Structures are given as C-alpha cells and as structure tokens.
C-alpha cells in the first residue's frame, strides 16, 4: 500500500506468524486443540480398517466397542473429550467396571465374563495401536494393559441321549422349526460356524458330491474350504432348499426367515436356548457349542486332528487341539481301550 494512499494499514504492529508452534502441555497433561475427539478417533480407525480390506461386519465391531468406551467415559469421566486424554489408568478403571459393575442384560447379573472382557480389550488394543502407529496419539494407553486370566475352557459335551432329546424338540411340521432342525444337524455334522452357515447360498451346495463349498469371501480366515456331508444331512438340505425355492424363489440363501429374509445368527442362538430348555438339558448349549461338539465327536469317532483342522477351518493346529480336549470320562474310556497293559492282558487271556 502506498504511503500517500491516506489509509492506515490494519496489520501495522501485529506479529507475523512464520513458523508452526504446538500448544505447551503443562505438567505432562495430555489433550490439545490438535487432538481428535473420541468420535473423530473412532471414525479414523473405522476408515483405516476399511482401507485394509476388512469385512464390513468386522469393521463395524470397532465402532461398537469404541462407542461402549465413549458411553462409559461420558458417565464416569465426563471431562475427557479427546482421545489422547485416555490413559492406561482410565482403561484399568474401565476394566474394573466391566468386571464388577456392568449389568449383563442376558444373564441379569453384574459383571462380564473374563473372556467377554478380553474380546473388548483385543479390539481396543487394535484401535489404539492404529492411532499410535498413525501418529494420532503420542502414548498408547493399551501398551501396558494385559488380557485377563481366564479359566481353561470348561466345555461340557452333550451325551448321545441329550443330543437326541435336543434334536427331537423342533416340530418338523413347522417351517421355522424344521429350518432350525436342519441347522443343528448341519453344525453337528460339519462343525460349520454360525456366521458361515447363514451366509451359505444355495449355489454353494453340491448335490452330486454331497458337500458344501464355502468360498473365501464368507469364511473367517478367507480361505475356501469344502464341507463333506453325511447322507442324512444331505437329504435334509435338499428338503429345505426345495421348500425355500418354492416359497421364496427370489432368495439365494439356504437358511431364511418365515418372511424369506436372510436368517440371523442372533435369532438362531435364542431359539437354540429355547430348544435346550424344552429338552430339559441343564448344560450350556449354543451354536458355538454345537461346533465344539462336532470337533470332539469327530476325534472320538476315529477322525484325526489334521483332517479336522481342514474341515473346521482352523488356521492354527493349536486351535484344533484346544477344541478337541477330552473330559475326564472321555480320557478314562480312551485309556481303557488303548492302555498297553490292558491290551497285553487281553491278548494273553485269549
């Protein structure tokens, strides 16, 4: 501006900003105007995980568990607004709350099981690891957090009589109950995961080879695999698919609701509990338990752990071995069959 313009510059006397500066944090306090809010951090992780090619239902889990933490913070730490204000001490308070004070809607009791809490912790670790690696936060509050100790899996298998009672409960004259009957038979015959079963399309069923082909897009480890079927279960699937095609010709899925919509795992889980109660079975019975039952029965019936690993779709053989742990009664029975001394005595007594 020229000196003789007669207009005084509004910038005169003001400091010129040339270099970036970071707000100073006092006494090591975290949180600044440059940090992401809790919701912004959640959305950042969601976007990052989607860019990694994770399935939508997997990525949605990050949203769910981030919202759980955010809602808890809003009640017990309302002053925390930014993600870098979450410390390891806050996380430990959250863990204590989940262990003792969280009301479990399903069991109507206070406190979540250690395995359930560990699921949350693993998800939170993955989220905070991403934020730390991306430079969103300087300190990872999950770095010093360890998973809770859990008791060894106490799966109690069903007896043959209990399995018969469970399968006899559904009324096969009713479509929904017949569908559930086929579901339970399929899980006990193949160990298929619930999520895989309800994503199974009619085109995946090979009637000639009596098998289901699961493409990598629906399996947990993204590897395709083949599930051989017994003659009995194959017949049940043919009967169900025939009915589904007749009533809802536009659907592509094997298992559908009474309205022809894709059957939901949560609905099946609730119905299995009802069948268990009606069968007067006191043991825990769930879709995952039926998968576990298959793995155990497969080994006890003479199958080997390596073929079971392929059928069950375990990436690690250690997972397969965990699933086929035997009860004390099983071990006693197997020892009686294969004890070297018992075998020697049987041989000499002939």
Distance between the termini: 118 Å
Please work out how many helical segments DSSP would assign. 14
Count of distinct strands: 5
What is the domain tally?
2
* Elements, N to C (H/E): HHHEEHHHHEEEHHHHHHH
Rg over alpha carbons:
28 Å
Given helix and strand content, the structural type is mainly alpha
Largest sheet: 3 strands, antiparallel
Can you give the helix content as a percent range?
A: 40-55%
- Strand residue content: under 5%
CATH topology of the largest domain: the name is hpI Integrase, Chain A
The averaged pLDDT comes out at: 86
CATH class label of the largest domain: Mainly Alpha
**Assigned CATH architecture of the largest domain:** Orthogonal Bundle
Shape call: globular
Kindly report the spatial arrangement of strands forming the biggest sheet: 3-4-5
CATH superfamily of the largest domain: Intergrase catalytic core
């Amino acid at each position: 501006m020229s000196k003789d313009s007669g207009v005084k510059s509004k910038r005169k006397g003001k400091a010129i900003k040339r270099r970036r500066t970071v707000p100073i944090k006092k006494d090591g306090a975290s949180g600044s105007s440059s940090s992401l809010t809790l919701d912004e951090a959640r959305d950042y992780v969601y976007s990052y995980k989607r860019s990694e090619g994770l399935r939508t239902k997997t990525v949605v889990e990050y949203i769910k568990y981030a919202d759980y933490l955010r809602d808890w913070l809003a009640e017990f730490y309302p002053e925390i607004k930014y993600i870098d204000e979450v410390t390891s001490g806050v996380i430990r308070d959250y863990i204590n709350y989940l262990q003792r004070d969280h009301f479990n809607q399903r069991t109507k009791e206070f406190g979540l099981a250690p395995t359930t809490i560990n699921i949350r912790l693993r998800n939170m670790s993955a989220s905070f690891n991403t934020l730390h690696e991306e430079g969103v936060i300087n300190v990872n509050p999950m770095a010093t957090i360890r998973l809770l100790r859990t008791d060894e899996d106490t799966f109690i298998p069903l007896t043959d009589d209990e399995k018969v009672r469970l399968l006899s409960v559904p009324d096969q004259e009713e479509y929904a109950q017949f569908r559930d009957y086929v579901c339970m038979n399929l899980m006990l015959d193949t160990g298929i995961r619930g999520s895989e079963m309800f994503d199974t399309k009619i085109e995946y069923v090979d009637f000639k080879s009596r098998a289901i082909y699961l493409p990598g897009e629906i399996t947990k480890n993204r590897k395709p695999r083949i599930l051989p079927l017994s003659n009995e279960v194959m017949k049940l699937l043919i009967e169900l698919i025939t009915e589904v095609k007749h009533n809802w010709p536009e659907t592509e899925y094997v298992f559908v609701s009474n309205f022809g919509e894709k059957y939901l795992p949560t609905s099946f889980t609730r119905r299995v509990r009802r069948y268990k109660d009606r069968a007067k079975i006191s043991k825990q019975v769930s879709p995952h338990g039926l998968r576990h039952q298959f793995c155990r029965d497969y080994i006890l019936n003479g199958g080997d752990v390596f073929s079971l690993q392929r059928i069950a779709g375990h990436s690690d053989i250690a997972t397969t071995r965990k699933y086929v742990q035997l009860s004390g009664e099983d071990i006693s029975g197997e020892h009686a069959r294969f004890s070297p001394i018992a075998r020697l005595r049987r041989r000499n007594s002939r």
